[in-house]
Amino acid sequence: MTGQTSFVNRSARYAQRLCIPLLLLVTLDAVSWGQSQTNIRRRTTAAPRLKTIQLPASSTSGTISIEQALLGQQRLPAPSDQRLESSALGQLAWAAQGVRVPRAASTATTPTPLPAMRVYFVLPDGVYSYDPVDHSLQQVSMEDERRTMAAALVNRPGVPIGGVQIVLAGSLRDFGVQYGTHARTAMLVQAGQAAQSIQLQAMGLGLTYLSIDNVNLNGVRRVIRLAKGLDPLYVIFVGYPGNQTSVATAEPSTMTQPINTRVLIVVPPQAFQDQELYETKRALELAGVPVQVASTRLTSLTGMLGGTANADLLLNQAKISDYGAVVFIGGPGVVEYFTSATALSLARQAADQKKVVAAIGTAPTILANAGILKGARVTGYLPEQARIVQGGATYTGNPVEKDGLIVTATSSPAVPLFVQTILEALSQAR
User: Fold this and answer.
1) How far apart are CA 15 and CA 346, in angstroms?
2) Is the Cβ–Cβ distance between 124 and 80 less than 8 Å?
3) Domains of the chain, earliest start first
4) Tens digit of pLDDT for each residue in 209-254?
5) What count of Cα atoms within 13 Å lies in the side-chain half-sphere of residue 226?
6) Most buried residue, 67, 266, 279, 345, by most Cβ within 10 Å?
């Protein structure tokens, strides 16, 4: 019995010694767990909530006719950066995609899938994805990326950013489900239709825009964080007409420093790009700059879209010393000037005399063939890229590019910025 008591006492003392370390371990474990839970709570409570903007119902009638909207596109000022009202955003979203997608029915049991084309709105309070089924904007980021987007697309200071930037993006894989081998064609056609609808709707709302059809894929994808497989196809900056940034509609009295020099516009005798000529000429004249048109014949110049024009003088009569700038207009007919000794000589003389030399659309190839683009940053109509690079230039694809006194642009939508840049170059050349 005494032996059993001694054994029990020894066992109790051993258990007591063992329990103390165990209690310490449990206590430390509990403290550590509590601290980790506190850290988890601290990390998770800071996550911001992305919001949804329910757009107002779209209107199906307006006060501006299609004809007025089309004519209005020929004299566009630059857009201001003031945020657009929700009603305007709703109309633009509806025009871009909402008009083609039925609204979600209140009794629907399964959600309607989003169409293959995606529409993004870059606003002052973040980037949003448009849901045409619910007619709402779903926020995907909270940063104002408009200036970053403008810098990615137009590599020059002072470019307008607009109150909203609308991005059209598409996925070949998604389009392939419906269109098979014709997916890319269908995707580009739909993007073109949506772009035209946005432009007309903007005009109908009394807004203005700057469209960019030569998109920097990586730049746009990075700014709005596109999902894998989505390619940006078209970007348009829309806003209220700006008073200070406009040159396309500015009266001469609004120019801070009137430019007292003439500009020579060189036009092919046939198949010139109508909008490039008319809009450039009009914008320069409204800015108070005298303009003369030169070609290889004086009358019955015909545009590729059916327009007509008359020249003020023959190309071989033009004296570069009489002008501050020479502007070459593009179009299919400009190939006549690619090897024209007279046209190439005009470009060389202008460069030698430190005049502003500008070209738009297909016309930058004239400057390349004249040998005045070596080492310059240049843009132009995309199919002319190889010829421009062959002339020693760096092709950027930006809507407008300025390198010293050389100004180039891609196409007619870039005319407001093209003319603004020409005026800037003329001010520097004086």
Assistant:
1) 105
2) no
3) 52-104+112-239 (3.40.109.10), 252-429 (3.40.50.880)
4) 888 766 677 888 888 888 888 888 889 999 998 643 333 333 333 3
5) 23
6) 266
Q: How does pLDDT run across 403-412, given as a tens digit for each residue?
A: 999 999 998 8
Cα distance between residue 393 and residue 368, in whole Å: 8
Give the Cα separation of 421 and 419 in Å (integer): 5
- In the 3-class helix/strand/coil scheme, how is the chain assigned residue by residue? CHHHHHHHHHHHHHHHHHHHHHHHHHHHHHHHHHHHHHHHHHHHCCCCCCCEEECCCCCCCCCCCHHHHHHHCCCCCCECCCCCCHHHHHHHHHHHCHHHCCCCCCCCCCCCCCCCCEEEEEECCEEEEEECCCCEEEEEECCCCHHHHHHHHCCCCCCCCCCEEEEEEEEHHHHHHHHHHHHHHHHHHHHHHHHHHHHHHHHHCCCEEEEECCCCHHHHHHHHCCCCCEEEEEEEEEECECCCCCCCCCCHHHCCCCCCCCEEEECCCEEECHHHHHHHHHHHHHCCCCEEEEECCCCCEEECCCCEECCCEEHHHCCHHHCCEEEECCCHHHHHHHCCHHHHHHHHHHHHCCCEEEEECCCHHHHHHHCCCCCCEECCCHHHHHHHHHCCCEECCCCEEEECCEEEECCHHHHHHHHHHHHHHHHHHC
d(CA 89, CA 224): 18
C-alpha dihedral (145, 150, 153, 156), degrees to nearest 10: -140
CA dist 408 and 353 (Å) reads 18
155 touches 396 (CB < 8 A): yes
The residues pairing with 241 across neighbouring beta strands, listed in sequence order, are 79
User: What is this structure's pTM?
Assistant: 0.55
Q: Read off φ and ψ for residue 115, nearest 5 degrees.
A: -70, 170
Q: Which two tokens stand for residue 185?
A: 């064609």
What's at 41, amino acid-wise? R
